[in-house]
Specification:
The chain is mostly helical and 488 residues long. The protein has 18 helices and four strands. Helix 6 crosses helix 9 and helix 9 crosses helix 11. The longest helix is centred in the last third of the chain and has 44 residues, at 391-434. The radius of gyration is 35 Å and the shape is flat. One of its GO terms (cellular component) is voltage-gated potassium channel complex. Residues 183-424 form the Ion transport domain.
Amino acid sequence: MRTCTDSLPAEAGRGGGRGSSAIINVGGIKYRIPWTTLDEFPLTRLGKLKSCHNHEEIMDVCDDYDVSRNEFFFDRNPSAFRTIVTFLAAGKLRLLREMCALSFQEELLYWGVEEGSLEWCCLRKLRLRQEEHREAQREDAELSSLPGDDQAPSTCSDEGRGAGCMRRLRDMVENPHSGLPGKIFACLSVIFVVITAVTLCVSTMPDLRAEEESGKCTQRCHNIFVLETVCVGWFSLEFLLRFIQTQSKCVFLRTPLNIIDMVAILPYYITLIVDSLSMREKPAGSGNNYLEKVGLVLRVLRALRIFYVMRLARHSLGLQTLGLTVRRCTREFGLLLLFLCVAMALFSPLVFLAESEMGDKQAFTSIPGSYWWAVISMTTVGYGDMVPRSIPGQVVALSSILSGILLMAFPVTSIFHTFSRSYVELKEEQCRASRHKPDSQDSTKSQNSDDSQETDHAYPAALEAAVHRKSVAMASQKALESRRSLKP
């Protein structure tokens, strides 16, 4: 709404004849800002406001303008503008705890403040939030590219029933807090994982291994095979149900946990196929060598069953937090690996030279052979298989241990903060998923009503200013009409 269009001086925007400061009204909160403060920020919105020459230019920059009070109105977030005013005055720009980082980025874009002006910690947080937002948008785009519900009207009822069944199936296999079926499904999954781990441990006992190598199938071996078959059957059924209920099959197959499921399930079926083929197509005259090779392949495939333990990450918030932390801290882990490699390349030649000249030559035979000692020493494990005996070698060992402690401590702080933040995020997401849908709808309605009440109480000054501007505009319009009526 434009006010007093016929009485605006040419220098209103620059303060000529209007004093040395301007009143900036943002969301009902007024700020008196000197024009000289904006000299260092000519590209910001307020800096452009200073260089305006007429009313049209001013209205392109702000939402409204009161010429009588030299007051500029902006319908924006007052909390974010308070931080921007602090930046204009003191040069410090930080994110707000009570405001989303992406929303604050939009405020910076509106006021013409560059993101690079943020403090490094806040800028890092903003970059992380932008990366998460882009990843979420990419997943949404992949899901939206799938065939939708735009089918023939005659099949709407069938699709509705099918969608309801798929939604209940999705809640059962993905959300243990959705109800009793989800809890039972999660408990059965954990029980079968535990049974598989125990079976794998029992199958490595010496007496069972001797029976397996001799080719005899006793009752104990048969029982273990039956347990393994039942567990693999359950895991196959669970994987199939998850694959059916998912909307994007490609995204499902690229998920790390689903890849682990396939790696853990497939060895059982491959073992059955290899075992059956080895019994049918045994080459003539191959002797025991062929059986030993087949047995080695089978043992390697069976050892892959240990990946079943990783399935617990579906039901463990701690393991999910660990995986999310590893994914977010790839740069920190890479930096830690770089530190260890550089230190290993430095201390291995030193300890080799020291021990080859003055110590035990049998332990440190070469520089590559000393890499193992350097890694074990810097990580403060110390197996004791390679020990420097000379004084120079012990000095090098002490230096490697101290440097290892320091190098390990550098990235740990950042990794710890990422782990804490990831745990809080997953905990909040789990709490949201545990709420029932009707309760969530009621809470959404109540939250919207509370937000509207808070808005009504938080911006009384903004409402008052809007009413004042409207009354001024109506008065000016009536004055213009009366002047036009008086003209011949």
